[in-house]
Amino acid sequence: MATAVAHYAAAAATDCGRKRSSNEDAFGFSVEHGFYVVCDGMGGAAGGEVASALAVDEMIRLLTGRDATHPLLDDGAQAIAAANAAIFTRAQRNHGLSGMGTTLVALFAKDRRALMINVGDSRGYRMRNSRPSPRLEQITLDHSLVEERVRLGQMDRLEAERSPFRNMITRALGTERSVTPDIFELETEPGDLFLLCSDGLTRELSDAQIESHLKLDLPLQGLCARLVEAANQAGGRDNITCLLVRAEAGDKTAVAVPGSED
Ligand code: CA
Question: How far does the centroid of ligand 1 lie from the alpha carbon of residue 38, in Å?
Fold first, then answer.
């Protein structure tokens, strides 16, 4: 496509779901600074909520405090390391928070270049305007026990869904002194729609169901609300968070749609 990507628009929503008493998911983004993040915390007491909020806050602090000339890869790697250190240090100081951690899926996007970074089982997808119709593609690979066994051919998808170990993640932010994220480098086209989400969405809805909702002609905030509503209707067994980012052709003005919650 000849038209260059000139700006991004974003919206997000998070919801406690129907079964949980607290929301351990967190999200944050800055269209101006070109980063978007969703975290799903875990740990006893208030650990999960603290870990996911710390990761998001630390990334916002680091990335909004610097100019835009840094390469995406530097920004991404440094933000993940800083968020990991912030959680790990807090957990060391406070025994009540010991062992807390969080998943993280983040998108860094500047002009036509984008990076998707993940740790744990929160996912990043891209829906592209391919013919005959837009197609949703999972970009990230879950760091979870069952998904890794599926990839190795040791378990099929049905067994994975029924496994008592399906909640076990194999990598998390903040539980060790350092962490190795997966990093996916992408070239963006106008019209690309990125979805970052917690497993409260993907456990309730299949990729085909998510794709059909995303094809609806709604503003981004309306699409987020629609996904949350659909996950709740399917059971709402966990906290649900989705963040949508669209690459748009046009002038350089950044358009930010506020999320439903800070
Ligand atoms: Ca979750």
Answer: 11
Cβ atoms 11, 221 nearer than 8 A: yes
Ligand 1 centroid to Cα of residue 20, in Å, is: 10
Q: Which of 63, 199, 22, 177 is nearest to 118 (CA)?
A: 199
Dihedral sign for Cα atoms in the order 213, 214, 218, 220: positive
SS3 content of the chain, % helix, strand, coil (to 5): 30, 30, 40
The region of weakest confidence among 57-66, 165-174, 237-246, 251-260 is 251-260
CA of 19 from ligand 1 middle (Å) equals: 12
The residues near 46 (Cβ < 8 Å, ≥ 6 apart) are 96, 97
Whose CA is closest to 12, among 105, 120, 141, 93?
A: 105
pLDDT of residue 1 exceeding 50: no
* Pairing mode, strands 240-249 and 193-197: antiparallel
Q: How far apart are CA 197 and CA 179, in angstroms?
A: 20
CATH superfamily, with its number, for domain 7-256: PPM-type phosphatase domain (3.60.40.10)
State the Cα angle at 41 between 104 and 103, rounded to 5°.
20
pLDDT value for 4:
77
* Strands 123-128, 113-119: pairing kind: unpaired
pLDDT value of position 3: 62
